[in-house]
Amino acid sequence: MRTSPHLLPRAAACALALAILATAAPAASAADKKPADAQQADQVIVPQVERRDPGLPHYPSNDIEFGLYLGGFNTQNFGTSATAGGRIGYHLTEDWFVEGTYGQVKVSDEAFRRILPGGVLNRAIERLQFYDMAVGYNVFVGEAFFGTKTAKLTTAYVTGGIGNTSFDGQRMTTWVYGVGTEVFFNDWFAFRVDARNHLYHLDLLGERKLNQSYELNAGVSVLF
């Protein structure tokens, strides 16, 4: 039986195609399995990250202020004398604060004794003491310049409150109001100036009258 010469090339082509398919099938199967193996390998290594809680740092707020001052105190009818005192305050917010103040001054009735024998006070020199609790509000917050390169935080404020005044054996409810300014040289040291008025009723020579005592003082403060 003789084979047609036209069938040989076709048979060779079919054989080649079968060989190619037989070779590609395992390769495709291996390619399909590779991503699964890679995915499985990726899942084997699971990162273990332990979370840490470092906590919040604590910074001092410097809300408490303590200060000492010197100045002048004008006692109505008795002139102006030196005064000294101290104050302690607490800053509620950036604008509001409360403070307590204590001060004293020596008052003389020498001018009256030149006219009236025995004067008008129990003694020639009496000590006037006062203390009060006030609320303050920072009306202005800015900077004070010292030269061309140095600027310091500065506040201007108003205060008002109530307290007590002891003078010549009398204890009198006192209303206090005033204005002031404070310069902060750093976060714990400041210089301030205050002008205040003290309103109280004083019984002098049997007549009770409203008295106004003006005070001007300057001092330093520390904050902590």
Could you describe the 3D structure shown?
This protein has helices at residues 7-44, 110-113; strands spanning 64-75, 79-91, 96-108, 125-146, 150-167, 170-184, 189-204, 207-223. The chain has 224 residues and is α+β, with helices and mostly antiparallel strands. It has an 8-stranded antiparallel barrel with strand order 1-2-3-4-5-6-7-8. The longest helix has 38 residues, at 7-44. The protein is elongated.
Shape: elongated
The SSE string, one letter per element, is: HEEEHEEEEE
Whole-number total of structural domains: 2
Low-confidence stretches: 1-8
Mean pLDDT: 84
**Helix coverage percent:** 10-25%
Instruction: Report the β-strand fraction as a percent range.
Output: over 45%
Number of strands: 8
Q: What is the C-alpha radius of gyration, as a whole number of Å?
A: 45 Å
The total count of helices amounts to: 2
CATH topology of the largest domain: Porin
The CATH architecture designation of the largest domain is: Beta Barrel
Strand order of the largest sheet: 1-2-3-4-5-6-7-8
CATH class of the largest domain: Mainly Beta
**Computed structural class:** alpha+beta
Instruction: Tell me the major beta sheet.
Output: 8 strands, antiparallel, barrel
Distance between the termini: 119 Å
